[in-house]
Specification:
By secondary structure, the chain is of the alpha/beta class. It has 15 helices and 19 strands. Strands 11-12-15-16-10-17-9-18 form an eight-stranded mixed β-sheet. A five-stranded parallel β-sheet has the order 2-1-3-4-5, sandwiched between helices. Strands 7-8-6-19 form a four-stranded antiparallel β-sheet. Helix 3 runs parallel beside helix 7 and helix 4 (74-90) packs parallel to helix 5. The two termini are 33 Å apart.
Length: 486
């Protein structure tokens, strides 16, 4: 019986974040050996179901993820990496390995954690087929591509297609295991750095084009790796990875074609979001709900989640009927919890992590609601925000949580009793992941170029490892480069 090994090690590193990612960040979300059962809609569960349907034996190692933050503490990364490798050795002969990784994980002493893990796994398993499903905000490095037989990143941002991409990965790798298919990669660097939501605009057409390209004879997979601009590595940037069945020239030509389309659309792909003042002026003239995204304080990109810039502007204007979520401020949650529902208390909210968080706000608030386990639904699986409170100050409803995470579900308001349909302005600390849930309920919605940890002016980012030869710093960018994988 053929044997499949599965594991998940996921986090995204913002090397400009003012705090490290330690082992506790993974423990907060669980380090489990039954990830396929814990997340029945996730890639590991899908790998298991497809494997068992094919009659494969499944060996499962650890599954864990941490909210994006600063570099992972070296000891924490090595401990998790080595646990997966030890399980791999203990499992005995393996025919296939399928992993869920992010692709932009950086440790104190390792810029390419996924490349390191995959290379070590390849050294252990020279004959096994190795594949991984990735976040599209990955640094797609030559080391990763060389070590794996197939890498597939999600196509959509927000990431609603992990199941589809995981299924493709299993199908390709299982066919390679049976010698029915020989995936040959080509990796092309576009010379661009950017952020590319896919639900609308020019990126929508580019992603739809990927699906059409994959229908061509011999083309197995086409991936646009957006890259993660706030991770400073030599490989940071937008890249294209294509696999063809035994045909290196077809893979290279296809990857070059996609890269050329991205480069041609580079100006229309650049983020062009209004600032806070412009957004509040515009929202005042519109019928609500108006949903505004605090782009730079998105914990899903490694931001602290306690930035006060947007809330301070709302209060300065005296706006009412506004709701905002969610502040990561465990101290305020504890104080409000102790005071109880109905209490009127003084709190010092936010602004605690560093300069990108702004100044703390001293507020007199009423405690409207308390919960010990506020959940957001992520593809039918609840994600706990821990203890949370609804505070009201001067007609503004504020959600404060004990756990740090971006906003992606309406339940973060609704489950506390805040009815979004009744609010004029709704502010979410998110870049794009809120769109799937919030776009349907918003009369108007846009992203706001706020101050904070996710600066959208990539020319200002203080890169030390990434060469400063990228678009938009340089226009036109250097010619698309086919990267040597030999």
């Amino acid at each position: 019986m053929a044997r499949l090994f599965i594991a998940a090690l996921v986090t995204e590193t913002n090397s400009f974040a003012p705090f490290p990612t330690g082992r506790s960040a993974f423990e907060e979300n669980g380090i489990t050996r039954d990830g396929s059962a814990a997340d029945p809609a996730g890639p590991l569960a899908l790998f298991r179901r497809m494997a068992e349907a094919e009659g494969l034996e499944v060996i499962e190692s650890i599954s864990t993820f941490a909210q994006p933050g600063g570099r992972v503490v070296g000891e924490a990364y090595r401990g998790l990496r080595d646990a997966i490798l030890a399980d791999c050795i203990a499992a005995g002969p393996l025919d296939m390995v399928l992993l869920q990784l992010h692709g932009a994980m950086m440790a104190e002493d390792e810029d390419d954690c996924e490349g390191d893990l995959l290379a070590r796994m390849r050294n252990l398993l020279s004959d096994a087929v190795i594949g991984a499903v990735l976040d599209c905000h990955c640094h797609l490095t030559p080391a990763m591509v060389r070590a794996a037989d197939c890498l597939i990143a999600v196509k959509e941002y927000p990431h609603i297609d992990f199941a589809e991409r995981a299924a493709e990965l299993f199908t390709i790798c299982n066919a390679a295991r049976q010698s029915k298919m020989r995936p040959v990669p080509a990796l092309v660097d576009t010379g661009m750095i950017g952020i590319y939501p896919t639900f609308a605009g020019p990126m929508r057409a580019l992603v739809d084009g990927l699906h059409e390209i994959e229908q061509r004879t011999g083309i197995l997979s086409a991936t646009i790796a957006h890259g993660f601009p706030w991770g400073d590595t030599a490989d940071t940037g937008t890249r294209v990875l294509c696999y063809a069945d035994g045909d290196a020239e077809a893979a290279a030509a296809t990857a070059q074609e996609i890269a050329a389309s991205l480069i041609a659309a580079r100006e229309s792909l650049r983020p062009d979001y209004p600032d806070i003042a412009t957004s509040l002026d515009r929202a005042a003239a519109l019928e609500g709900p108006v949903v505004l995204a605090d782009h730079a304080d998105n914990p899903g990109g490694g931001a602290p989640g306690d930035s006060t810039f947007f809330l301070a502007a709302v209060l300065e204007r005296g706006l009412r009927n506004v709701a905002i979520a969610s502040f990561h401020d465990p101290a305020v949650v504890r104080i409000a919890d102790d005071a109880g529902v109905g209490a009127r208390i003084a709190v010092r909210l936010g602004g605690k992590t560093g300069p990108t968080s702004g100044d703390p706000l001293d507020l007199e608030v009423e405690v409207m609601a308390i919960t010990r386990d506020l959940a957001q639904m992520a593809i039918d699986v609840p994600y706990s925000m821990g203890s949370a409170v609804w505070l009201r100050h001067a007609g503004v409803d504020i959600v404060v949580c004990a756990k740090r995470a971006g906003v992606f579900a309406t339940s973060i308001f609704e489950d506390l009793g805040i009815r979004l349909a009744e609010r004029h302005i709704v502010i979410v600390k998110s870049s794009s992941h809120h769109e799937a849930a919030y776009n349907p309920i918003a009369r108007h919605t846009w992203k706001v170029a706020t101050p904070g940890a996710l600066d959208l002016d990539f020319t200002r980012l203080a890169y030390q490892r990434r060469a400063r030869d990228f678009h938009p710093l340089v226009d036109p960018p250097p010619p698309a480069q086919l990267i040597d994988l030999a």
